[in-house]
Amino acid sequence: MSDEELFWRASFVPQVKQYPFSRVPKIAFMFLTKGPLPLAPLWERFFKGHESLFSIYIHSLPSYEPRFPSTSVFFNRQIPSQVAEWGRMSMCDAERRLLANALLDISNEYFILVSESCIPIYNFTTIYRYTAQSKYSFIGAFDDPGPFGRGRYNPNMLPEVNISQWRKGSQWFEVNRKLALIVVSDVTYYPKFLEFCRPACYVDEHYFPTLLTIRAPNLLANRSLTWVDWSRGGAHPATFGATDITEGFMMKLHEGQECLYNGKPSFICYLFARKFAPSTLQQLLVFAADFLGY
């Protein structure tokens, strides 16, 4: 299907809300990557034994040919893809493409976007329960009055988007089925962002947060589930290598966190972390059982 056909098909919503069959809600894990998934063995261990509770979708460069064995959970999970450029609408197109493909499976209820450098920092049961029992979806959406927030707003967004509705956030999100449908069916705000949010306005930081703040603000937790380290400075968060993966580092992944979960204080705020280089795989496999629970 073309994108136009795909989004149209994915936007179908049943009018009878009660399912006439036994439905076990699944999490759709959507991998946005240029090519390989170097941390796949770690994810394989994370997924093992929970096959009825998840689906996997991979969006890579069209030229990439995966070589997963038929026994892998990643085997044959590639979706028809196009080139996605950081900071441009093609990146949001890739994310919408992932959502649309995942929506075609009526069992998918929760949709989590991750990259090839992400790892789960809790076991599958904890992540599933945390996601399924939340009253809100997890997408960062905050009003930044500075030059990298409201400073990127273009008055040509009016009347669809007012500057008071302009939001910024991480592109790594979790949304439920209702919000995923809003994203793939949007034809009102998409053209505005396509035309008027171009570098130095980075659309993947603004389109989804602004769209969902306008359409469904009461369903947002206004925070991401994916932890990154900005302490090293620069336009991108820190990338961790093999020498970074120590017992002390693994302990820090769960320490010093406090947030609201369903309106109450929680010490579990992030379920995933990035950015981990391919060289970290062996160390992560050594520490995963003791520190990540899988």
Can you walk me through this structure?
With 294 residues, the protein is of the alpha/beta class. It has one domain: Alpha-Beta Complex (Spore Coat Polysaccharide Biosynthesis Protein SpsA, Chain A), CATH 3.90.550. The chain is built from nine helices and nine strands. The strands form three sheets. A four-stranded mixed sheet has the order 2-1-3-5, sandwiched between helices. A three-stranded mixed sheet has the order 4-9-6. It is globular and about 55 Å long. The chain starts with a helix and ends with a helix. InterPro entries: BC10-like (IPR044174), Glyco_trans_14 (IPR003406).
For the record, what CATH class applies? Alpha Beta
**Number of individual domains:** 1
Low-confidence stretches: none
Number of helices: 9
Query: Helix coverage percent of residues?
Result: 25-40%
Structural class based on helices, strands and sheet pairing: alpha/beta
CATH fold-level assignment: Spore Coat Polysaccharide Biosynthesis Protein SpsA, Chain A
Instruction: Note the overall shape.
Output: globular
CA-atom Rg in angstroms? 19 Å
Could you give a short account of the major beta sheet?
4 strands, mixed
Strand order in the sheet with the most strands:
2-1-3-5
Q: How many individual β-strands?
A: 9
First and last CA, distance: 38 Å
CATH architecture: Alpha-Beta Complex
What is the average per-residue confidence, as pLDDT, rounded to a whole number?
Answer: 96
Strand content: 5-15%
What is the H-and-E element order?
HEHEHEEHEHHHEHEEEH
